[in-house]
UniProtKB/TrEMBL annotation:
Location of the MgtC/SapB/SrpB/YhiD N-terminal domain: 18-146
Ranges annotated as spanning the membrane: 13-30, 42-65, 77-93, 123-144
Lineage: Bacteria, Bacillati, Bacillota, Bacilli, Bacillales
Chief location of this protein within or outside the cell: membrane
Similarity remark: Belongs to the MgtC/SapB family.
Protein name (database record): MgtC/SapB family protein
Length: 241
């Protein structure tokens, strides 16, 4: 290799690659533990890849550093990593009805790429500090967030009711009388007739509710369970992101 600022020893290269594997693996362990698709190995590969690109950007072209018409720009390839990692993050985001999952995993992939760039550039303190803060956010802040915001989050309910004129409006009024605030509603009505008793198929209603306390949710569930025109109902559980 060349000399000066554009040179690096093989031991230093190995150290940065190993540190990138450790940092990415630590973040990936939390995602793997939470049973997300982008887990342990994915985060290691992202961090290693961004580290390798950063090393290439800084030291890979050292042979041309002394050329008169060559201008070295170590940040050029790094900028492409930050924008290019978006395709992998977008693949981790999934939507299932009202539920959107994968946002935190996409963000962790993006920040792991940034950690890899820091490691590749030899910015050890920032890479170590960022890894620590990311792990703190994923492990500890995740639990605090679930406890603190659990009562302020929107609840999602799916109901199946008998197909009668005006029945959907009655159910909406019942929900609102319990103190719940309906922020979104969708009704799926299929005009099919059952061959057994010549009755129309049930109507499916999906609610997005804002409920201030758990007691209100329990009271609402009791009224829904005893209502003669409600065939079934369930609360849609939002998966961790």
């Amino acid at each position: 290799m060349g000399e000066g600022v554009w040179a690096i020893s093989y031991w230093e290269l190995a150290l940065r690659v190993v540190f990138a594997m450790v940092a990415g693996g630590l973040v990936g362990l939390e995602r793997e533990w939470s049973n997300h698709a982008a887990g342990f190995r994915t985060h290691i590969l992202v961090c290693l890849g961004s580290t390798s690109i950063m090393l290439l950007s800084i030291y890979g072209f050292s042979a041309f550093a002394d050329e008169a018409n060559v201008r070295m720009d170590p940040a050029r390839l790094a900028a492409q990593v930050i924008s290019g990692i978006g395709f992998l993050g977008a693949g981790a985001i999934m939507r299932n009805g009202f539920t959107i999952s994968g946002l935190t995993t996409a963000a962790s992939l993006w920040v792991v790429a940034a950690i890899g760039l820091c490691v590749g550039a030899g910015f050890y303190f920032v890479s170590f500090l960022t890894t620590f803060v990311v792990l703190f956010s994923l492990f500890l802040l995740n639990r605090w967030e679930k406890r603190f915001f659990s009562l302020k989050r929107k609840r999602r309910l799916e109901l199946k009711i008998t197909c009668r004129a005006g029945q959907a409006n009655k159910i909406v009024r019942l929900v609102e009388e319990e103190g719940a605030i309906v922020t979104d509603i969708s009704i799926d009505k299929k005009e099919t007739i059952s061959s057994d008793n010549n009755q129309l198929s049930p109507v499916q209603i999906k609610f997005v509710l804002r409920i201030t306390n758990e007691a209100m949710l329990i009271s609402l569930a009791d009224h829904l369970a005893t209502h003669p025109d409600i065939l079934s109902f369930r609360q849609v559980v939002s998966h961790s992101t």
